[in-house]
Design brief:
heterodimer, A: about 80 residues, mainly alpha, B: about 575 residues, Nucleotidyltransferase, domain 5, DHBP synthase, 3 domains, 5-stranded mixed sheet, about 35% helix, binds fe (ii) ion
Amino acid sequence: MAGKNVAKRAYGGFLWLSGKLRDMINFIILSAVYFLGIGLTSVFAKLFGKRFLNVKKGRARSYWVKKPAYNEKKEDFLNQF
Amino acid sequence: MYILGISCFYHDAAAFLIRDGLPVAGAAEERFTRKKHDTSFPINAINYCLKEAGISADLLSYVAFYEKPVLKFERVLSQHLETFPKSWVTFCTSIQSWISEKLRVESIIRKKLRYRGKIFFIEHHLCHAASCFFVSPFKRAAILAVDGVGEWATTSIGIGSDNRISLKKEIVFPHSIGLLYSTATAHLGFKVNNDEYKVMGLSAYGKPRYYNNFKKIIDIKEDGSFALDMSYFDYPFGKKMPGRKYIMEFGPIRKKGEPITKMHMDIAASLQKVTEEAIFKIISNLRKESGEENLCIAGGVALNSVANGKILKKSGFKKIFIQPAAGDDGASLGAAYFTWNFILKKKRTYVMDSASWGPSFSDNEIKKFLDDKGIKYNRYRSASALIKDVSKRILAGKVVGWFQGRMEWGPRALGNRSILANPRIPEMKEILNSKVKHREEFRPFAPAVPAWLARRYFECDFPVPIPADFMLMVYPIKKDKQKLIPAVTHIDGTGRLQTIRRFQNPLYYDLIMQFGRDSKVPILINTSFNIRGEPIVCTPEDAYKCMMGTGIDCTVMGSFFVERKNNLRDAWDSEGVSRNE
Ligand SMILES: [Fe+2]
């Protein structure tokens, strides 16, 4: 009985450790994607004056953005974009 | 023709099924998984809807999803690109859910439902717009969709006419009234996407001393458009919403367990004032521009019942409609109706005047549950005996669990999964707070009143708008009546009433009328049937467990009467295991 309990605990510990390890590897890979993909794109785009969000304070008279008329074709609603 | 609408992976996951333009069933996933605001794929809610219709998924003509995932992902990527490198940790922690589920919605739907038909992906604010307009009583109306954020839009205005909706203008992320409200919610030490209504309740206790501080953060134009000064916010890149500048302006974030002070109340009051200012300007401008007399609102901000109660007086609109599930759960209904009315160009045939679209349990099912568990109970011989007995108990100060008919669609308990009590007893608020709900002192309880009697007690719009039936409007309680119903009179003399019409729920209506005859005041306290931190009960088992874990004296399930004191062997302390805060 005691042996079974030890084995159960050891297995639990192994699962916990493997989970942590997986999270760590994921974090390292995603960090690489972030700095190489997002980072480089962001830096270059900003060098050329491109903004991705409208975060700057403006002196606009209105902040409404006109919505383009959407297509009413059934097929367009099958798209995820 | 069956159409299933689905919302999930962000706020409240839900499913809504319609057949030939009429509702069949709808529910939020949280009610089945017992996980509040569950965002996961709503497989339980879908299975329930299909079961209610007696069909399998292959008989669905269409499935409609409540947003366009790729368009939303574009916005998320834009956030990371704009805020690099501050979004590093958020990117690493959040991108996995995009890869594993949010961008795989189509395959998840097909796999989980074994469905081969067409799936429509409908823009989020179009779903919100459809969720209110297509089930409204109006042939034409102006529409406002306002929430935290959809794909890009945070606020959209437009027009609905017959089975057409046209959204004309929008405000886009990161400028958002919903996210401003959520930021303040986080700063005041409450849970984002959960406790915004607590901040609304708290606002009545404060003075808007911080109004000018908020005006530094938000620029509201006369045409209702607005922009936030993003230097005050961290939400475009971080998990924590208020930024350093925001904290400098309003003080440190209230930590868990810290007391709520006058300062917190004043911040809440100021936030509510500035939110109302923005909403009223948008709506007044919408009234002028559209020339419409009717207004439909949807989106999370439409749950701000304090603002809703003032809209008709402030905007010039004559009528208003808000659907019971105004938040993202309701967008599943919107997706289904958008498909039926807009895409398929079918005529509108339904007005949502009832929220009873969830699971119900027959007397046989309830009896089987009670017998199987060995629970002691009595059975009423008739509805009139039930009503007379329950009214007498409420009059005597008992707290009654009320489990009847189909569970409500939307976040409010409306007399199907409710806790009922006597509003005339001044201490009833404290009794409910300490014995049953275990919730903050400052939160008010709702009065339920027959719609035709509402004007006798409340300074409400006339005729009473349908959204009041869904507990979405706060109105002042008449000065001379406040003393009659102290337990539901909020600190500022208002009440978030539920008006009730007999056709919606005859037993509940008759009970209130009976209580009126017994007490001279036809009003009951109606609060949701749940343990703190848990979703509203769904099944007889949930209801029984809730009663036995709290100070609810008895529960009426169908025609059965179950008393707590007779079943003490099942008693437990819900507060000890409460998952909230
Ligand atoms: Fe939304």
